[in-house]
Amino acid sequence: MPRTVIRNAHTIVAYDAARGGHAYMHDADVVFDANGFVEVGGHYDGPFEREISGRDRMVLPGLVNVHCHSGEEPISKSLFEDAGTAGLWGQAMYEYSTLIEIGDDAVQAALTVMLGDLLRSGVTTFVDIAGPHDCWLPTLAQSGARAYVAPGFREAAWHVEDSHRLDFRWNEARGREAFTRALEAVDAAQAHPSGRLGGVIAPAQVETCSPELLQEAAEVARSRGVPITIHAAQTMAEHEELLRRHGLTAVHYLEKLGILGPDLILGHCIFIDSHSWTRQRTALDLERLAKSGTSVAHCPVTFSRSGMVLQSLGRYRTSGVNVAIGTDSYPFNMLEEMRMAMICARIAGGSVFDVSTADVFEAATLAGAKALGRSDIGRIAKGAKADFSLIDLKHPGMQPVYDPLRNLLHCAAERAVAAVYVDGACVMENDRPTMVDYDGALQELQAVQDFAVRRLQVNDPRGRPASELAPLSLPVLSHP
User: Fold this and answer.
1) Which of 87, 125, 258, 449 has a CA between 20 and 30 Å from the CA of residue 28?
2) Mean pLDDT for the chain?
3) How many CB atoms lie within 10 A of CB 443?
C-alpha cells in the first residue's frame, strides 16, 4: 500500500493503550495507508510515497457521530427554532416537524449538505437515521465517509390534536412493510463493496412501535450482528405515554422486553426516572443502562433549543453509562455539539467539574466507537483505521496555543479544521468536501425550502399559514 507520512506534527492526539484513553504527543510523525495507521510517534525513516508537513498542525482522531438525520432536516433550518407546543412541554417536534415536505428529487441535495457539514466539523463516522431512498448508499459511498444507514420504521404516526394533545394513529401493515424495506437497506449497506458502509436496525421511537415489533427488530439485529438504535426517553410526552400504557419508564420498559444491551444505542435518553421533570422519585434507570452496557446518543443542541437538558452528562458517565455524541438535526456541526454538551452538563450538574474537555472528547470518539462495537475508529493508534483531521494551529481561533483541544472545542470549532481523511483518503479540504458537490447541493436547498414553506399550510391540520407557523424573527418594513 502507498504510504503517507505526516512529518513532525506539532501535536498528535494519540491513543494511549496503557490508560485506555487519549494523550498528547508532540513533534512526532504519523504514517498511514489505505488500510490504517502504520506508525504513530517517533521519527519514521521507512519508505513512503507522500509527505505532509505537520508543522502548525494537530492530528486529531476522526469524530464518531452516533445519531443524525438527513431527510428533511437540512431544510428545516430557521423555521421552527422559536416554536413549541405548550401542552407538550414546549417540544416542537410533534406538531411542527411533521409539516415539512420534501420531494424525492431533493433528498440527495439535503443528504449532500448534511454530509458536507459533518465532514467540515471533523466527523469521519456517522449513523444516519432516515427513510431509505435510491440515492442513499451511492451518495454516502461517493462522499468517502464511513457511514451507517439506519432506516427508520414504525407502526404509529404522531398526530397533534388542536395543539394540545398527542395522539397515535396505528397502521401495523405499513409498519411491517417499512421494517422489510429497512432490512433490505441494512443488508445492502453491509454488503457494499466500498467497505465503509454499515447498517443499524432502527425502530423509530419506543412509543410508535408495538412491543412485538421492538422485540423482533432486536432479534433480527442480533442475528445479523449489527447495532440497534431506538429513540427513547426523548420527550416528556413519550415518557407520560409509556407510563399510561405500561406504568414504566422507557428504560425500564425496554429492560422488561429484553432489548437493553451493549449493541443498543438509545437516542437522547433524557427523561429517565431521576430527571427533575418526571413524576418518579427513583434513580434506577442509570443502573439499568450501566449494567446492561446500553449506550446513549446525546444530542444537546436540538433539545436545549426547546429548553430541555440531560441531567447530566457527567452523572451518566460516573454511573458507568457509555454516552456518545450525535448531532441529531442541523447545524450538523459536531464540534459545536461537543461544546454545547459541555455547557449543558455544567449547568445541569451545577458545577464546572461535571465534565471536562477530555470527557466530552472521549464521548465523541471512543464512546461512539464502543457504541458501534468497534475498536478501530475514534483513535489514532497503529492498526486503527486512518480516519483523522488536521487542525490548523495557526488559525486565529487556535491562537495562542496552550491546550489545543480546549482551543478547538471552546473557541475555533470547525473553522480550524484544515482537512479530513477517511481510510487514508482526503475527503474534506479547504472547508469543502472533496468528493461530492456540496456547493451545488447548497444552491438547490433554497428552492427546496421555498417549496416546503409553501406546503406548510396544506400540511397543517389546522390550516395555519406559514406566517403564523413560522413567523420571522423581525417584522418586515416596506420601502418608503
Assistant:
1) 125
2) 97
3) 10
Q: How many CB atoms within 10 Å of residue 166?
A: 20
| 57 neighbors 392 (Cβ within 8 angstroms) | yes
Q: Which cell numbers hold the place of 281?
A: 422519585
What confidence tens digit (pLDDT) does each residue in 299-324 have? 999 999 999 999 999 999 999 999 99
Q: Are 119 and 145 in contact (CB under 8 A)?
A: yes
Asked whether the beta carbons of 69 and 145 are under 8 A apart, the reply is no
User: pLDDT category, 480, cuts 50, 70, 90?
Assistant: confident
pLDDT tens, 367-411? 999 999 999 999 999 999 999 999 999 999 999 999 999 999 999
Is-contact 38 382, C-beta < 8 A?
A: yes
Tell me how far apart the alpha carbons of residues 305 and 167 are, in angstroms, rounded to a whole number. 24
Residues in CB range of 119: below 8 A, 6 or more apart: 143, 145, 420, 427, 428, 433
Q: What is the pLDDT of residues 98-126, one digit of tens each?
A: 999 988 889 999 999 999 999 999 999 99
398 CB-side CA count, 13 A: 19
Q: With beta carbons less than 8 A apart as the criterion, state whether 41 and 12 touch.
A: yes
Neighbour count for residue 65 (Cβ, 10 Å)? 30
Backbone angles phi, psi at 435, to 5 degrees: -120, -5
Q: Are 460 and 99 in contact (CB under 8 A)?
A: yes
At 340, is the secondary structure helix, strand, or coil?
helix
Q: Which residues of 239-276 are buried (b: 16+ CB within 10 A; e: fewer)?
A: bbbbbeeeebbbbbbbbebebbbebbbbbbbbbbbbbe
Q: Could you tell me where the beta strands, DSSP code E, fall in 336-469?
A: 388-392, 417-422, 425-429, 432-433
Nearest CA among 87, 77, 66 for reference residue 269: 66
- Terminal CA-CA length for the chain: 68
The tens digit of pLDDT for each residue in 242-290 reads 999 999 999 999 999 999 999 999 999 999 999 999 999 899 999 999 9
